[in-house]
Inverse folding.
């Protein structure tokens, strides 16, 4: 992809995404970290658009920015005397080493391998094709995923029910 | 000046590494969860990049995988945060260093 | 019959297209026409948005005042028409106070975060023929996704104020918003099922081609989207989280001056966005059964939009406010099952239409009659099933139950 718009968009979005991810790890306040995480999610949605994955971009915004961020913020808010700082534990140095090594290995493999790049242009209409695939080839994972969501929802509700609520019924 | 598969893979790798660091090193349970979500995003980005660039008979399988990953990530975030609230209720804290009842 | 000449203002795409052709003739690089057309569209949308908000501040206050049997603002200009200007100046000139214990970064980011999604939504909406800034293939989902960013902005505003009542208001608002998002998505799925595409231009084109408004074949969907839209706007009768008599101002209590101005106009912008979505998906968009050949398409669109927004102003002036638990019960126990029923019926009808290969003159009136019947039965029947329509819930006449104190009757012997 070598038209100017895509290149400019990619670099801006990549800088925003990676910078916000580093900000999430680095800021000292937990709420600021969540805000940076949300910016990172939006950056990834923008990167999906440069990869002509329009349906996934709006799905990412809808689910990650619109729902999962709210979940994280509610969890922070509903633990009032919990720790609101974003500091690291005692595993800081090994974690830095491990993730640095992992990043170096993955980047080396990514740059070194001869990927089987095709000359295909961008996708045309991903939503229709994803929908057909979900109901045709991937119908079993689709049904299992819906059962999984149901179970997760029920589990979350049962887990955080207040004490003694069962006797009131 | 063009943008190829390698660029997206590098971005994905960096995001994954930052997420892994947060998941391993953060003292706050919510910090660990944020690291896990970053790792999910990195993996999704890699899936979509491969689906766009690499020769394949059904290129949109990558997108369908990402849909499932997003679904499972949402379910996992809900459950993990419910567990976090329950931990807070039982132990009074959400620092992962304090939740060490099984420590010898 | 729209001519492709530059002076044909029935669509703004004509003069803009002429300008772009000129630019290409002058040998500009590839990205210049794209950037220029985007900039013109963005400036036009922003101008329209600002002017509409200013106009509707006045219109709403006058109309609600007349509905409540009082005059409304009439001092500032002829008929009070400069009231919005006075409001804007007041908000701009007020001292911007930030509470000392507030989280300054997020406090400042709150108004920005509420403004961005409400403006970005207008990018995907076709204002007229060939007049959409970005005619996305996933237009409907884009509108819903961008609307869901509002919840984050509300949380940021409520949290950073460091005020427990602002936080409570923010929590209630977020609970309302996420509950009615589901209803919104399900209501918007009905037209998408019939048209077979999420592209807003194609939805308007379908309504033009089949000579019908989707309102007639999806009345339940429109009703649910009007309700869900009113909640997304935090607008009366659903403004429990920001009503002055309830919780001062909810999540924007601590904001003053132009920061409050951002929240205030974001409410109107969200209203215009929801009205624009309804006009495009249910009311035929910029088409009007052939009238768009003489009247500019964007004028038809704006007329429909403002006419539909009047419905929201009417609701505000007439209906009493709902409590937060009534709102949540309404969303989860009443609207959600009926919205699912609506999707089921719509899907069944589309399948029947395709499989039986009915002609449109047979299928559409049948679907309209059946859907209206199902709508009526479902709305009344489900309310009965849930126990909300019992006779003793209706208000009776006031009766005198007790007399206290010294009671003097005229003309009778008084103690």
């Amino acid at each position: 992809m070598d038209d100017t718009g895509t290149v400019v968009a990619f670099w801006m979005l990549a800088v925003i995404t990676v910078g916000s991810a580093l900000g999430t790890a680095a800021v000292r306040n937990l709420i600021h970290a969540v805000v940076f995480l949300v910016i990172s999610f939006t950056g990834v949605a923008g990167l999906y658009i440069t990869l002509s994955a329009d349906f996934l971009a709006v799905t990412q915004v809808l689910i990650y920015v619109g729902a999962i961020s709210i979940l994280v913020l509610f969890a922070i808010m509903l633990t009032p005397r919990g720790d609101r700082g974003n500091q690291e534990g005692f595993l800081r140095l090994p974690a830095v080493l491990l993730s640095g090594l992992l990043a170096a290995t993955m980047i080396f493999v990514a740059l070194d391998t001869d990927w089987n790049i095709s000359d295909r242009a961008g996708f045309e209409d991903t939503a229709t094709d994803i929908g057909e695939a979900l109901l045709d080839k991937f119908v079993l994972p689709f049904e299992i995923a819906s059962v999984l969501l149901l179970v997760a929802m029920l589990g979350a509700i049962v887990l955080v029910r207040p004490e003694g609520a069962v006797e009131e019924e | 000046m063009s943008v190829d598969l390698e660029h997206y893979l590098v971005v994905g790798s960096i995001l994954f590494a930052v997420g892994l660091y947060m998941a391993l090193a953060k003292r706050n349970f919510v910090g660990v969860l944020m690291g896990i979500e970053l790792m999910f995003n990195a993996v999704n980005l890699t899936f979509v990049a491969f689906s766009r660039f690499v020769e394949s008979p059904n290129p949109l399988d990558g997108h369908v995988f990402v849909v499932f990953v997003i679904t499972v990530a949402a379910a996992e975030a809900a459950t993990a945060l419910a567990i976090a609230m329950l931990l807070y209720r039982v132990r009074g804290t959400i620092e992962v260093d304090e939740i060490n009842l099984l420590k010898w | 019959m729209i001519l492709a000449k530059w002076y044909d203002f029935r669509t703004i795409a004509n003069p803009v297209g002429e300008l772009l052709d000129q630019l290409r003739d002058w040998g500009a690089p590839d990205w210049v026409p794209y950037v220029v057309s985007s900039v013109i569209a963005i400036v036009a949308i922003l101008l329209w948005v600002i002017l509409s908000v200013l106009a509707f501040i006045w219109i709403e206050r006058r109309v609600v005042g007349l509905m409540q049997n009082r005059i409304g603002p009439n001092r500032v200009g002829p008929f009070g028409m400069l009231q919005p200007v006075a409001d804007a100046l007041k908000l701009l000139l007020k001292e911007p106070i930030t509470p000392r214990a507030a989280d300054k970064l997020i406090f400042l980011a709150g108004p920005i975060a509420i403004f961005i999604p409400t403006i970005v939504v207008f990018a995907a909406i076709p204002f007229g023929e060939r007049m959409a800034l970005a005619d996305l293939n996933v237009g409907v989902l884009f509108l819903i996704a961008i609307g869901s960013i509002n919840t984050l902005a509300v949380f940021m505003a409520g949290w950073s104020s460091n005020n427990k009542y602002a936080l409570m208001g923010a929590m209630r608002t977020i609970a309302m918003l996420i509950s009615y998002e589901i209803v919104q998505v399900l209501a918007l799925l009905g037209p998408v099922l019939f048209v077979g595409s999420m592209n807003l231009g194609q939805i308007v084109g379908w309504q033009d081609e089949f000579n019908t408004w989707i309102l007639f074949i999806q009345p339940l969907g429109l009703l649910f989207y009007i309700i869900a839209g009113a909640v997304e706007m935090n607008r009366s009768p659903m403004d429990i989280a920001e009503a002055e008599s309830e919780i001062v101002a909810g999540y924007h209590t601590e904001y003053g001056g132009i920061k409050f101005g951002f929240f205030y106009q974001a409410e109107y912008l969200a209203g215009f966005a929801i009205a624009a979505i309804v006009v495009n998906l249910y009311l035929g968009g910029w088409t009007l059964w052939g009238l768009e050949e003489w009247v500019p398409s964007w004028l038809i669109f704006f007329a429909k939009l403002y006419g539909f927004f009047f419905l929201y102003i009417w609701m505000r002036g007439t209906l009493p406010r709902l409590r937060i638990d009534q709102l949540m019960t309404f969303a989860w126990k009443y609207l959600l099952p009926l919205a699912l029923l609506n999707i089921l019926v719509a899907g069944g009808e589309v399948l029947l239409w395709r499989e039986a290969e009915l002609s449109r003159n047979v299928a559409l009136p049948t679907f309209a009659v059946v859907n209206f019947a199902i709508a009526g039965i479902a709305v009344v029947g489900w309310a009965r099933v849930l126990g909300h329509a019992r006779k003793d819930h209706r208000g009776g006449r006031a009766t005198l139950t007790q007399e206290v104190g010294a009671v003097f009757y005229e003309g009778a012997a008084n103690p």
Summary: Chain A has seven helices and no strands. The first helix of chain A runs from residue 4 to 26.
